[in-house]
């Protein structure tokens, strides 16, 4: 089941309602106070509820990164698979304070079969500087690698991207692609851990072992731009093939022209250089992941007139995605997580100078862009280097293997003033949608 599938929204709502009312410990407290439809127990509950044939034959559920490590190492017994700290901590309600996963009494109120599922998970999780096993001869031959080399415990791709981007205390890493993951780390306190409200969880070792990893993100980022491009391409995709039919030019010509225009639309919209012209948009096209998980909310656009053209509309969408990131930055700071610098990785970060400049202006601080276009793979290579003995720990691997900064976007005072003003309007529009219950099933 893909993470992006939101078919388990109802199950997530049941989990969150029960966590607050069942009379015992709220097991969502280390997930920002809410369990998402994108995460482990929501999806498991949905599958069990929807498909009796699967439910009756199911033994356990396994996250992809854990399955992959088990596959490569020939781990046939699922009880021997080392479950990822990052996945099960952020997505699976695992925490040392709970002694592992939520209590059977809690899970049983959701579905009597969940306690049995929990029993297959074990009580421990492992950070990715742990060896999951050794590469089998069969897979070594298929991959062109040496048999017996160590294979690290897996992790979520964006956590690897954070490590590859050089995450450290005070540094925010934005993995800016179709959606965003926005992450940082903090030292592990000697006393009780401070709970961070409304973000996507916190767990020691999800990113850098020994440090608490904090995740948040937006459900749509580059997807918003892709959606707008799709709207603009509708005449070409729908009408051009019929217009060329009988003209001596084949169907392949229509595909070639459409494909070429598709590649150029976003860069040309950005080069047009127009501001939004009073258009304000919300970035909730796929719900809101954080701050304050609300998968049912909808996007909105206001201030549109007959003078609003495509570049102005696109500019408003770009500003909306950046404002969504700023809302997360502000929540980190409100909750006592220090952030004083930011680095972006991913496709949008390297392709769109407009979006990155808007982000620097909105954040009021420099935003660096990594020269690596494969930050997640680079982070995974760092963990591989640690378990192979080339570096003693992840900070050393980051120093030795980290990619240099390709470009730094510094805030423009005039641009920051403008973005501050527009951000207040963005917040007001979000408040209007919430207060009137538009797209807010909980309102």
- Order of strands, main sheet, comes to 5-6-4-3-9-10-11
Distance between the termini: 29 Å
How much helicity do the residues have? 40-55%
- SSE pattern: HHHHHHHEHEHEEEEHHEEHEHHEHHEH
Biggest sheet features = 7 strands, mixed
Q: Strand tally, please? A: 11
pLDDT < 50 runs, ≥5 residues: none
Overall body shape: globular
The gyration radius over C-alpha positions equals: 23 Å
Instruction: Work out the strand percent.
Output: 5-15%
Structural class by helix and strand composition: alpha+beta
Task: Quickly count the helices.
Answer: 17
Question: What is the typical, i.e. mean, pLDDT?
Answer: 93
Task: Write structural notes for this entry.
The chain is an alpha+beta fold and 443 residues long. It is built from 17 helices and eleven strands. α14 crosses α17 (413-435) and α15 crosses α16 (394-401). It is globular, with a radius of gyration of 23 Å.
